[in-house]
């Protein structure tokens, strides 16, 4: 004999739900007792089973989420030596138009030392100088006994301690390109970007930009690149020559920079990529005003036979030839505007201690002071490399494109946080780094994927099941705790006409 189970659906479970959907003031009219009474016993089981089954069927119909579309291209542009407060001191109409449509970070806290090579490598690796190994613009490696200078930077051995984003992105199937970014024409792990321009200071910004736009567009033989970096020497060059406080010289240099930004925007519009490519405009460091009246002479402190000088100013790096402690003691009392550090005593906040290329003694000049070995000659009227906590050393960050919000400003951000931000924009898994995406999240446009919708739906149904379960438990507890559940009866009214199973009795 075949036995069929036919659940008895009572109309009382429908009445409260009918009120919810038909009555606009249901929140004030529905009584908790009505709902709890209707969700008792088997009714609760079948309603919960229905919600669970609906969730499973819906999830099965949805299947795995569709593959994400390829990310928009990302263009990273650095204008060397662009001090953050230049934005307030000089008119920059094109740059302001760019970030008015996107985002602006007023000051970036860059890495120590605040030099060109260390900070450009930090931007594309997310690492402090002690971690990526480019600890200065002039270096000495005690293991290989090699010296590094900007004019001889093509030896891959100097760059192998980290992997820049234009290499990492290749592993995600993205094509990349570099235009004269420091270190970008070096083979790193026996690889380079898909396209790169060897450094040549005589190549104009327009010529560099022309290569960038061609790489972004692609051609009949290959698709466009997804990540490209572009470097330009100004306003650093003018800042060194005249100093950042020379308003006449800096105004001219910054007008050229702003014109170049305007050219970049117009070219991207011309080729149909403006608004479809994420553009980041930033810099590596700021600039401080120097003076021949603020010189620190090392020969006044100790004889040059006592040390080998690796780098000079404003962070001098020394290798003592004799007793390191004795040399340090002489330098420690050398000048009131210079601080001497043994390598092991360099402040932790500078993240400039744990690398063999950091020399046994470093000397850090105060802002605007210059370290020389001897004489009265001031090498340049503007310099950088000082403590990275100084506002004069800070650059800025501006960005626009589909990945960024519009009209958003932040006061500060760390430059090492730009790397995880760029990895997020490119959907590339970042290499281990010292940055974090979290501080930069307020800059990002909201993104909603099919997976997000599925997750929200599942959470909503899960919460509903939880509430139903809690209602059932509450109902059960009330029944168990009642001293005499049969001695109290609910009065029947005209509203209970549909309760044709005697459900008016509270049992």
Automatic annotation (TrEMBL):
InterPro entries: Phosphodiest/P_Trfase. Its cofactor is Zn(2+). The chain crosses the membrane at residues 455-478. It is found in: Cell membrane. GO terms for molecular function: hydrolase activity; metal ion binding. One of its GO terms (cellular component) is plasma membrane. Keywords: Cell membrane, Disulfide bond, Glycoprotein, Hydrolase, Membrane, Metal-binding, Signal, Transmembrane, Transmembrane helix, Zinc. Pfam families: Phosphodiest. Belongs to the nucleotide pyrophosphatase/phosphodiesterase family. This is Bis5.
